[in-house]
Design a protein that fits this description.
This protein is of the alpha/beta class. It has 3 domains: 2-41 and 208-270 and 381-423, FAD/NAD(P)-binding domain (3-Layer(bba) Sandwich), CATH 3.50.50.60; 43-77 and 201-206 and 273-376, Polyamine Oxidase, Chain A, domain 2 (Alpha-Beta Complex); 81-198, no CATH class. The protein has helices at 11-22, 62-67, 70-73, 103-108, 114-129, 150-156, 161-176, 185-197, 209-216, 310-313, 338-356, 406-423; strands at residues 2-7, 27-31, 42-45, 48-51, 57-58, 75-77, 81-86, 89-94, 200-203, 223-225, 229-233, 236-239, 244-252, 273-283, 294-297, 304-308, 323-330, 364-376, 394-396. The protein binds flavin-adenine dinucleotide.
């Protein structure tokens, strides 16, 4: 008999387990996968470390700051800003608050009008001034009770089509994984505030170091990998193996929709997901000259949305003398399978020659990652997740109950642990 059984060792389940054990509560975590991390995993291929889809830790995330040892993660940080391909050629946008030396370059970049640069300042001010301790905007900043989309908010704030199409759309769609920017504006303020207050970073050796660090802090025997829960009953969890784990409390930390397979009601609504395709390349040299910076496609054409060079940002992503390039395409371009992958890498290679020159011809595809379930679509992402115990003693955490982000997952896990500890 355990005090708590947690199902799922993604960031939510791991954060919950760590907080429970720190509070003196015994728990066990069952995870269907072969390693902790859930959607934050890194594969090793020919000495390269390939994150499963490009993602970053925003160092300002309050829940991550509280639970992670950043120094031990040896974080490498992106430059604040981006290089942008425009129809007129390459441009650069920097955060003038953090890179004042680049103020004029940013002001004169063919990415938006002078008025847009002022509007960016106003957006930044709104995001940071209206920010609560948990990073979320206060209700009036985000439109109060009204659920505005990010696209509506950008239009309401008067951003020119130039600014929206060349910078804001490629940048935000790379974060929200959708081009329409239908994601609620609260998420825009949250993300903007987090970028303003901290850095976008990668741990040395890959994003999976984050869940590994959380898992390493658990008592030996807590984490049971390769164990799939099949059903949740009153005070018990039955595994596919037939074993039954008895517990005072059960925490369900699985991804959106996966509670149905446990015989639990997920709220009745079908969960929609945003997908993404990431192609990872081995290259002899960095196409960005070794600068740890995000590259965005602001040309309005082509498939590629974002290019990053993780090996320019943090240690351990590529073998010595080689470079890892990661290309993000929104959604799922074409079907899977080796033939489709070959066609996709061919198309992307030709497109990227236009941005980075003929040297792209020397790049070697390492992996085509089609991630259909990257971010759950949430109608009301936001703060204030107040966990509730179901009548049969089941708690729910995960990004789907808070916001589709590392912060959402970790904060919800911490909130459930705090609620269980409070019950005593
Ligand atoms: C490509 C991509 C890019 C992203 N970019 C960013 C970014 O830049 N910044 C950011 O903040 N966030 C980003 N995210 C989102 C972030 O990774 C997620 O919000 C977060 O990792 C979700 O954690 P979770 O613990 O809620 O869920 P998950 O990580 O999905 O964990 C759920 C776990 O439950 C396990 N499980 C399910 N069913 C069972 C069962 N029956 N028995 C046992 N175990 C089970 C699963 O195997 C899984 O390990 C990105 C995600 C992806 C995929």
């Amino acid at each position: 008999m355990h005090e708590v059984v947690i199902i799922g060792a993604g960031l939510a389940g791991l954060t919950c387990a760590r907080a429970l054990q720190s509070g003196g509560v015994d728990c066990v975590v069952v995870e269907a996968g072969d390693a902790p991390g859930g959607r934050v995993r890194t594969d090793e291929v020919e000495g390269f470390r390939l994150d499963r889809g490009f993602q970053v830790l925003l160092t300002a995330y309050p829940a991550a700051r509280a639970a992670l040892d950043y120094a031990a993660l040896r974080l490498g940080e992106f430059e604040p800003g981006a290089r942008v391909a425009t129809p007129e050629g390459p441009a650069r946008v920097s955060d003038p608050w953090r890179r004042p030396g680049r103020f004029w370059e940013t002001l004169l970049a063919p990415v938006g009008t002078m008025g847009d640069k002022v509007r960016v300042g106003a957006l930044r001010l709104a995001a940071t001034r209206g920010m609560a301790a948990d990073g979320w905007p206060s209700g009036n900043v985000a439109g109060g009770g009204e659920i505005r989309s990010t696209a509506e908010e950008l239009e309401r704030r008067g951003f020119s089509p130039l600014m929206r199409e060349r910078f804001l759309r490629p940048w935000l769609s790379g974060i929200f994984l959708e081009r329409e920017l239908s994601t609620p504006a609260a998420m825009l303020f949250f993300v903007y505030g987090m970028f303003a207050r901290g850095a976008a970073a990668l741990p040395a050796g890959g994003m999976q170091r984050i869940p590994e660090q959380l898992a390493a802090g658990l008592r030996p025997g807590t984490l049971r990998l390769g164990e799939t829960a099949r059903a949740v009953g009153v005070g018990q969890v039955t595994l596919v193996s037939g074993e039954t784990l008895r517990a005072r409390e059960v925490v369900v930390a699985v991804e959106a929709g996966a509670e149905a397979a446990l015989g639990l009601d997920g709220g009745g609504n079908e969960v929609a997901w945003r997908g993404v395709t990431c192609v990872q390349w081995a290259a002899p040299r960095s196409p960005l000259g070794g600068e740890p910076v995000l590259w965005l496609n602001g040309t309005g054409r082509g498939q590629v949305n974002t290019v990053v060079v993780p090996s320019d940002v943090a240690a351990g992503y590529a073998p010595a003398g080689q470079t890892l390039v990661s290309t993000t395409v929104l959604g799922e371009p074409g079907l899977g399978g080796a033939e489709a992958n070959g066609a996709l890498t061919g198309v992307l290679r030709e497109e990227m020659k236009g941005y980075f020159g003929p040297e792209v011809g020397d790049w070697r595809p390492l992996a085509v990652q089609r991630i259909l379930r990257a971010l759950p679509v949430l109608a009301r992402p936001g703060r204030g997740y107040a966990p509730e115990r179901s009548p049969v003693g089941v708690w729910r955490c995960g990004d789907c109950v808070a916001s589709a982000s590392i912060q959402g997952a970790m904060a919800s896990g911490a909130a459930v642990a705090a609620a269980i500890l409070k019950r005593g």
